[in-house]
Amino acid sequence: MAFVITQRCCNDASCVAECPVDCIRPRPDDPGFATAEMLHIDPDTCIDCGACMDACPVGAIYGADELPVDLLRYAEINAAYFQHHPLDTDISAATAPARLSREAGRLRVAIVGTGPAACYAAEHLLGRGDVEIEMFDRLPAPWGLARYGVAPDHPETRGVTAMFASVFNRDSIRFHLNVDVGRDISHTELLEYCHAVIYAVGASADGRLHIPGEDLPGSHSATEFVAWYNGHPDYVDRHFDLSGERAVIIGNGNVALDVARVLTADPDHLARTDIADHAVEVLRQSAIREVLLLGRRGLRQAAYTGPEFLALGQLPGTDVVIDPADIDDDVAAALSDPATDPTTRLKLTLAKEYAARGATGASRRIDFRFRVTPVALDGAGRVESLHLAHNELRESPQGPVAVATERTSTVETSLVLRAVGYRGVPVPDVPFDPGAGIVPNERGRVVDSAGTVVPGVYVAGWIKRGARGVIGTNRGDAEQTVAALVDDFAAGGLVAPRRDRDDLLALLSRRCPNLVDRSGWSLIDAAERANGAALDRPRVKFTRVQDMVATARAR
């Protein structure tokens, strides 16, 4: 019996290092790893040892004979990958990263952010030897998008946080939560206490459409909606009008699919997750029966991943609608071409199946519209309609480009959610590239406008590379940054801090009376879990900073 990787794969690649026969692909050093939607196990090489299953932080690996019914297709998906990419059976031993020499002394690093990129950076640093790490977050709760960005109906994906919590349960790492770097402590001050600072602050700004009516009431970013239903304290008081029968999501990436699922899911099912209580109450009153997802280009260019697209078709009481006209000659040619990669083939095959299935009369529907561009939102004081231009695709050196035609149409709707990407925001006292929305860097080393490396300053995650990739993508990204930092330290390129970590804690204690440390977070975590257990839920999140602080200080 071979093992099979399924939908929840986060591309963390923890399983790769554990496989004794090297049958999991792509590996972090393989060319396709950075863009891979998931990892795969070769069924012909797997020896059924189960090491990969034990290493998976999100429970995505099953024995082939133990696959749940809704995941049976993944045996075929794993096998198809290796039919297109035959396994190279030459096993090359992984090279362990060099550890810090004792002569270099203890390395002290501040990490701003506690999301996956920050946590992977801390994990890699801890594996290098004698290191002290200070982790900062503006909120009293850690884990960033793993807590506030993952859809509530994907609880296993949050499993990486349990891995981080276990790794970080040591004195060499300290949490400084409810501390705003740039306000409570400056970048310059951090370098007085640490050799280096890694900024892993993500990309919190939303992509804009830059069209008339974009800021009308009823038009929101998907980021706001996701943060609202996940209980983010900054968004708990937002209002979303779900009184209309149709919602429109602009974009068709995985975030768009998450939002579509939440809008069409049974509220009783969501109520058993860790979704915010205020969101469940609003969703119970929702009149939405149809969700449109709009994409500028065609089926072949859709941004969602195959696993998420597959899961969408298994929603009870919801039709997934694809216009049969979208299964055009281009789609047919790709499906008949043996050279079409498995990722594209899966998405096109699913689209063809959905188009053939058609509407079944379910009470809700998720309707995909391709080759359309929003040109304006209209309404008397709030969104009432969305005007669209219909596109044709033209080839360019960068691939197919959507070009608007004279054909237009109008969609009536009272709720529009923009899911057109994220952008980083400037970090105080750190160089920033407003065009790209990132901190400019070379392999994680921050550089100024002249391209000169800024000593002691590094980046990881979306603020480093832009908003792309899944949770596990941050692992290799963080490893690259940490390797640069450690090399600089070993070469004597980092200035030794003038003060120690106890001085830092004393400063923060004076400036931040509501500072939450790791023990305080443990109390918050335990209280949320206990509140959830009483209702047969994984947890009930605190959604107010003051409630988290009060719980953390209860000791």
By DSSP, the count of extended strands is 22
Structural class: alpha/beta
End-to-end separation in angstroms reads 50 Å
Cα shape: globular
Low-confidence stretches: none
Q: Within the largest sheet, what's the order of strands? A: 7-6-5-8-22-21-20
Radius of gyration (Å): 24 Å
Beta percentage is 15-25%
For the biggest sheet, the summary is:
7 strands, mixed
Helix percent band: 25-40%
Write structural notes for this entry.
The structure is a single chain. The protein is an alpha/beta fold and 555 residues long. The strands form 6 sheets. The chain has a 7-stranded mixed beta sheet with strand order 7-6-5-8-22-21-20, sandwiched between helices. A 6-stranded parallel beta sheet has the order 10-18-11-12-14-13. The radius of gyration is 24 Å and the shape is globular. 45% of the residues are buried. The model has no long low-confidence stretch (mean pLDDT 95).
Features:
19 helices; six-stranded parallel sheet; about 550 residues; single chain; seven-stranded mixed sheet; alpha/beta
What layout of secondary structure does this protein have?
Elements: E1 3-5, H1 14-18, E2 24-25, E3 40-41, H2 51-55, E4 61-63, H3 73-84, E5 107-112, H4 116-126, E6 131-137, H5 145-148, H6 159-167, E7 173-177, H7 187-193, E8 196-199, E9 205-206, E10 219-221, H8 222-229, E11 246-250, H9 254-264, H10 267-270, H11 277-284, E12 290-294, H12 306-312, E13 318-322, H13 329-336, H14 342-357, E14 364-369, E15 372-378, E16 385-394, E17 401-412, E18 415-418, E19 422-423, E20 441-442, E21 445-447, E22 453-459, H15 462-465, H16 473-490, H17 501-511, H18 518-533, H19 545-552
Parallel strand pairs: 5-6, 5-8, 6-7, 8-22, 10-18, 11-12, 11-18, 12-14, 13-14
Antiparallel strand pairs: 1-4, 2-3, 9-19, 15-16, 16-17, 20-21, 21-22
